[in-house]
Amino acid sequence: MRDPEAVNTDARAREHLGLDDVAVDPDLIFDLGMHRGQDTAFYLHKGFRVVAVDADPELCAAAERRFAAEIDAGRLTIVNRAVSDRPGRLTLYRNLQYPEWNTVVGAWAERNRRLGTGSIEEEVEAVTLPSLIREHGMPYYLKVDIEGMDLRVVGSLEAIATRPTHLSFESTKVSFADLRTEFQTLSALGYSAFKVVAQHRVPTQHPPRPAAEGRTVDFDFEFGSSGLFGDEAPGSWLTAEEALEAYRPVFLRYALTGDDPLVRSRLLRAVLHRVGFHAGWYDTHARA
Predict the structure, then answer these.
(1) Phi then psi for 213, rounded to 5 degrees?
(2) What is the mean pLDDT of the segment spanning 227-245?
(3) Which of 11, 34, 59, 65 has the fewest C-beta atoms under 10 angstroms from its C-beta?
């Protein structure tokens, strides 16, 4: 049984945030880690309103030009902030080659450096997920792709009584213990059904007809997009334990051919890639 004082503290926190009575808005999506706007474009095309958040001012400026009509129509709000589990100022490591690898996590910036890409450091303002929800509403779908901060931000939903119906984020491929922690966090938040989606295969996805989410559309996904979501995401809904089992071969492929591979021969790794033994990267989708 939980300590009564802890329960009271949670209640006070929710009251302070003004989130006790927030309801899911079925027309709203949060795109946390907007990057170049590939996902935002899809969600808008599907008929949703979008709150898109990114720490990179250049990416936000480009998106404001690209989506000027949608912004004017009130269908899109762009927030130029780093999403974190605490407010304040953070160091943004802006990747010089791959903006999608921008991160506020020093260890991730160091990983990017080992992979041959440099970054520049900038101070940026942070925003928390509860504060975004308080200002814009509870999204139906929460997409999180913020390079190392995903689980900490998702975990901040604990302070809120309601949850997004669907969420997704990039799962770890390095530590199976950390992967278990991810699913324990999601289960504690009330999520009970999961999909394991290969993100490197997103360009092969096609929106179904008729649609299971939003309106029926045609859309070509770029490499690096998050792709379909909710009931349209590929694969069957799994229990937490079934999803963990689905991740075991992913971890094997990553260990052998990932960022720090056990297979050191480039030729052998190329052969493995050609036969489909590719590390790739994966998102975990969850449904409340």
Answers:
(1) -135, 130
(2) 98
(3) 65
Q: Name the CATH architecture for the domain at 23-287.
A: 3-Layer(aba) Sandwich (3.40)
Is pLDDT of 66 > 80?
A: yes
**Token pair belonging to 31:** 């795109």
Asked if residue 204 lies in contact with residue 194, where contact means CB atoms within 8 angstroms, the answer is: no
The CA–CA distances, whole Å, from 30 to 2, 7, 216, 253 equal: 31, 28, 20, 31
Going by pLDDT thresholds of 50, 70 and 90, the confidence category of residue 4 is very low
Q: What is the C-alpha separation between 220 and 247, in angstroms, rounded?
A: 27
Read off the pLDDT of residues 161-220 as tens digits, 9 standing for 90 and up.
Answer: 999 999 999 998 888 999 999 999 999 999 999 999 999 999 999 999 999 999 999 999
- The CB density around residue 229, as the number of other CB atoms within 10 Å, is 26
> Which residues are CB-contacts of 118 (< 8 A; sequence separation ≥ 6)?
95, 96, 97, 112
Task: Name the phi and psi angles at 254, rounded to 5.
Answer: -70, -40
Model confidence at 7: pLDDT above 50: no
Tokens describing residue 17: 């945030």
Q: Is 256 exposed, middle or buried (0-12, 13-18, 19+ CB in 10 A)?
A: middle
Average pLDDT over residues 261-277: 61
Domain boundaries, the chain: 23-287
Question: What's the CA gap between 193 and 237, in Å, rounded?
Answer: 5
Question: Which residue has tokens 């971890």?
Answer: 251
Determine which helix (DSSP H) or strand (DSSP E) holds 76, and give its type and residue range.
strand 76-79
Residues 6+ apart with CB under 8 A from 205: 221, 227, 228, 234
